Amino acid sequence: MQVVTAFLIVLQAAVLQCQILSPDQCKQSGFTSALECSSCSQLKQFGLSQLDQACQQCCKGDSLDSAKLSNRPSQFPGLSIKYKRGAEPVIRLMQDEAARSAGTGEEFGIDRWDTDTLEEFLRERLV
Q1: What CA–CA distance (Å, rounded) separates 127 from 114?
Q2: How many domains does the chain contain in total?
Q3: Other CB atoms within 10 A of residue 32 CB
Q4: Whole-angstrom Cα distance, residue 73 to residue 7?
Q5: What is the pLDDT of residues 89-117, one digit of tens each?
Q6: Backbone φ/ψ region at 75: left (φ over 0), alpha (ψ -120 to 50), beta
Q7: Residue 127: is it exposed, middle or buried by C-beta count within 10 angstroms (0-12/13-18/19+)?
Q8: Are residue 37 and residue 73 in the same domain, yes or no?
Q9: How distant, in Å, are the alpha carbons of 47, 58, 66, 119 from that of 50?
Q10: According to the model, what pLDDT value does residue 17 have?
Q11: Would you say 63 and 110 are in contact if contact means Cβ atoms under 8 Å apart?
Q12: pLDDT tens column, 46-79
């Protein structure tokens, strides 16, 4: 009986550690929706290991936004890709060099776009 009880306690602890927090709970804990799991592994080096469990419960698997395009950027003249750590992926369309230097332009959030949608959008706008 003691073995079964000990097993259930260990199982319950494992289940609690693997739970995923809701987006609202993560936001209340101070984590963004763009949190990647690789960031959680860096907490220890800054003395923040107590945040690791909550971080693991709120993070998404690491993704490279360029993976959505894979080797396709060369198909789209005028396309440049810039990475900003922790930022949601967006496409910003600039009409001219003045807009580019000012950082203004039409902006579209692409975090939920699939590869086909993204490729079609770029084909319509850039080619």
Answers
A1: 19
A2: 2
A3: 13
A4: 52
A5: 888 887 777 666 666 778 888 888 888 88
A6: alpha
A7: exposed
A8: no
A9: 8, 14, 32, 41
A10: 44
A11: no
A12: 898 888 888 888 887 755 454 555 566 777 777 8
Measured on CA atoms in the order 42, 46, 51, 52, is the torsion positive or negative? positive
Cα–Cα distance measured from residue 20 to residue 62, given in angstroms and rounded to the nearest whole number = 16
User: End of a domain among 15, 39, 58?
Assistant: 58
Please state, in angstroms and rounded to a whole number, the distance separating the CA atoms of residues 109 and 28: 23
Claim to verify: residue 114 and residue 69 sit in the same structural domain:
yes
Which range of residues forms the domain containing residue 14? 2-58
Is-above-0.70 flag for pTM? Answer: no
54-93 as b/e: b if 16+ CB within 10 A: bbbbbbeeeeeeeebbeeeeeeeeeeeeeeeeeeebebee
Q: Are residues 108 and 78 in the same domain?
A: yes
